[in-house]
């Protein structure tokens, strides 16, 4: 089998996880180049993964022009998206993998989606928690009908909307069967994270109606329900691993409910478990689970690229819709009304720009966490 000649741009924490996932699927992918503008990161990654200096590049365009790879993965901060997608299209890349949030505006997200679709580039956005074992347990419960017919989904995360929120919007749609949202409402407050590299209000809550009638509730930020101990305020720092995995996707069906978290924990209450709750915890997101999920996510991408699968659950159309929902939530908060989807482009204004002008700082406050 001809391997997919692959390059990875961005050798920060996430880029190295992408690289790991690609190297672990070496029957499908061959890494022909790695790139970072920061030489020291590039050198460190090459040593860490035992790669030759000869495949290290500091300039992404030069690398693409010389190597003409089949696949490009990039893991850069949210403000670096469209420019790299344009380079991928310019140099004939056929498969693109990049990080969430897919953009910092819907206008940019639409440009990337259209660019990829027009150029026939198979593209995925890394909302990969659905490949964690805890989430796979949840999916199995949904697929076997163990909790009956799904009618309600709740998603919450402590990190702000542009950090984990886009993941959880995507997982709502995934748990509901890959459907679209038709209407959303939104509330937002707090300006601290609007100036962050991942700009969002400090807290976002939303009600969503999905096309199959399922209702969903989303909460992102400090005011969302807390499931683990961490008191990191608006200035989280090192040693706060439990903050980054403090999230939960809960699905209610006519016969029971089930939830999963990227901390590795999951639970099921159904006629099969009653009167008990079946619980498990794979733990160790940072040491093991995130690497294994990345391997499964990458493998599915390779299968799609090689024509062995019809598509991928993280495809760009799905990611775009998730991002559209986030901006619709912001518009609902700004306009104080329900917002129906799809949104028509161009928008009358950039919602984040309006929020940057209008939102005020709020004091961080910690509430006692709920058990279980
Ligand atoms: N999917 C997940 O579970 C998950 C988890 C954490 C972070 N992320 C996302 O991953 C992304 C990257 O996060 P990170 O912590 O690795 O960021 P980072 O800033 O540590 O690393 C990004 C690297 O990209 C390099 N870079 C930027 N522009 C470049 C260019 N044009 N050419 C070459 N190199 C370039 C930078 O020098 C830097 O080393 C963010 O969007 C973040 O939200 C996703």
Explain this structure.
The protein is of the alpha/beta class and 372 residues long. The chain folds into two domains: 4-125, 3-Layer(aba) Sandwich (Rossmann fold); 129-284, Dihydrodipicolinate Reductase, domain 2 (2-Layer Sandwich), CATH 3.30.360.10. 35% of the residues lie in helices and 22% in strands. The protein contains eleven helices and 15 strands. It has a nine-stranded mixed sheet. Strands 3-2-1-4-5-6 form a six-stranded parallel sheet, sandwiched between helices. Helix 1 crosses helix 9 (285-305), helix 4 runs parallel beside helix 5 (106-118) and helix 5 (106-118) runs antiparallel to helix 10 (316-335). The radius of gyration is 20 Å and the shape is globular. The protein starts with a strand and ends in a 14-residue tail after the last helix. The mean pLDDT is 95. The structure holds nicotinamide-adenine-dinucleotide. Nicotinamide-adenine-dinucleotide (NAD) binds next to helix 1.
* Rg from alpha-carbon coordinates: 20 Å
The count of strands amounts to 15
Name of the CATH first level of the largest domain: Alpha Beta
Rounded to the nearest angstrom, the distance between the terminal CA atoms is 48 Å
Unreliable stretches covering 5 or more consecutive residues? none
Major sheet, described briefly? 9 strands, mixed
- Which ligands are bound? nicotinamide-adenine-dinucleotide
Strand content: 15-25%
Number of domains: 2
Following the backbone from N to C, one meets helices and strands in this order, namely EHEHEHEHEHEHEHEEEHEEEEHHEH
Query: Helical stretch count?
Result: 11
SSE class: alpha/beta
């Amino acid at each position: 089998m001809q391997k997919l000649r692959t390059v990875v741009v961005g050798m920060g924490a996430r880029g190295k996880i992408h690289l790991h996932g690609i190297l672990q699927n070496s029957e499908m992918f061959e890494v022909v180049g790695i790139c970072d503008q920061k030489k020291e990161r590039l050198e460190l990654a090459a040593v860490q993964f035992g790669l030759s200096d000869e495949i290290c590049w500091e300039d992404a365009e030069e690398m693409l022009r010389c190597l003409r790879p089949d696949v490009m993965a990039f893991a850069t901060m949210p403000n670096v998206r469209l420019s790299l997608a344009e380079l991928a299209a310019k140099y004939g890349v056929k498969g693109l993998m990049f990080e969430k949030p897919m953009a910092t505006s819907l206008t940019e997200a639409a440009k990337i989606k259209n660019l990829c679709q027009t150029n026939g580039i198979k593209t995925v956005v890394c909302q990969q928690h659905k490949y964690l074992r805890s989430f796979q347990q949840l999916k199995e419960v949904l697929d076997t009908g163990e909790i009956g017919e799904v009618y309600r989904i709740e998603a919450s995360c402590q990190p702000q909307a542009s950090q984990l929120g886009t993941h959880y919007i995507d997982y709502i749609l995934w748990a509901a069967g890959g459907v679209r949202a038709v209407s959303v409402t939104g509330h937002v407050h707090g300006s601290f994270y609007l100036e962050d590299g991942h700009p969002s209000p400090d807290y976002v809550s939303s009600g969503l109606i999905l096309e199959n009638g399922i209702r969903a509730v989303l909460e992102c930020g400090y005011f969302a329900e807390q499931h683990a101990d961490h008191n990191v305020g608006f200035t989280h720092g090192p040693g706060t691993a439990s903050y980054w995995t403090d999230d939960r996707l809960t699905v209610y069906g006519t016969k029971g409910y089930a939830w999963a978290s990227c901390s590795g924990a999951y639970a099921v209450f159904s006629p099969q478990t009653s009167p008990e709750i079946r619980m498990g915890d794979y733990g160790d997101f940072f040491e093991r689970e995130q690497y294994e999920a990345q391997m499964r996510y990458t493998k599915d991408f390779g299968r799609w690229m090689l024509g062995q699968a019809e598509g991928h659950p993280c495809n760009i159309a799905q990611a775009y819709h998730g991002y559209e929902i986030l901006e619709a939530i912001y518009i609902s908060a700004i306009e104080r009304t329900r917002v129906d989807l799809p949104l028509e482009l161009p928008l009358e204004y950039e919602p984040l720009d309006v929020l940057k002008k209008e939102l005020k700082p709020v004091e961080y406050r910690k509430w006692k966490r709920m058990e279980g």
